[in-house]
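Forgive a beginner's question, but would it be possible to get any protein sequence you like and the tokens describing how it folds?
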Amino acid sequence: ELCAMADPEWAEHEKIVQDDGPLPLCTIAYSEEFIEAHDRFRFVCANKEYSKRALALTERIFELNSASYTAWWFRRRCLEALGSDLKAELEFVAGWAMDSPKNYQVWAHRRWLAERTSTFQAEADFCQSMLDDDAKNFNSWAHRQFCVKHFNEWGAEAEFAHRMIKRDLRNNSAWAYLWWVRRNQPGTSFGPEERAKEREYAIEQLKMAPHNEAASNYLIAVWRAGADGEGDTEVEEAAAAMLSSVEDNRFALHLMALLAERQGKREEATAFLSKCQASDPIRKLYWQWRVDGHELARPSTAWQ
């Protein structure tokens, strides 16, 4: 089957057998098809043969192991040497992304192509199609981030994040993306006015879903990015409202603990943290660590 793919046909000697050493401890039981394809692949790699048959061979390698980063790298060398149609390659890799959506090598190949032959809209549409299938696919979000920076297309990204959050209020990937946009968009300072809007947005989402950890973490990040005292009243009122409906809401209790810590009220903070420990027994040791006096660090440039 492999030889039928090749043009011209492979000669018998055009292979390099895998060297497992003189006394292999435990050899892997590869199939004959796998051995044949990879023996041929080692041959073209060693001889730097960037030919049509070598390009076709990479496809066979992917069918056997789509995570072969060496094969994806070698395919790029072949595409360059042959002057291949990279638009067609976008379609090729899109198929692999649909088949293997969390394959890092596939997404790295897509990124390489995006830099050379695609547009922001094309990549945004592709990412959307992938997110429609899995709204928390890390690779899709990371690829969109890359494309936003590469094509310098920031204008609609906050709105995009809002749309994804509206679909699923608990989509932590969308909340993290919104934070990334707000902290990195060129021409914006993320100053007091911007932070106030973001606190208001997070609080509104928490009113709809008080146990939403993603919205709670976003509120904490925005709030703690400001100066001491900034937003304290809003956060306290939001937490109190959450506790009025569910008195052991750990997210609201945590907000109150952070507020007390910020205001130097250590005993009050400890009381709220102890309540967190009772309402969230799975993280009992973490809350005890906090009770023992370990505070969370403020957001820094590292968060960007």
Observations:
- The longest helix spans residues 192-208.
- The radius of gyration is 26 Å.
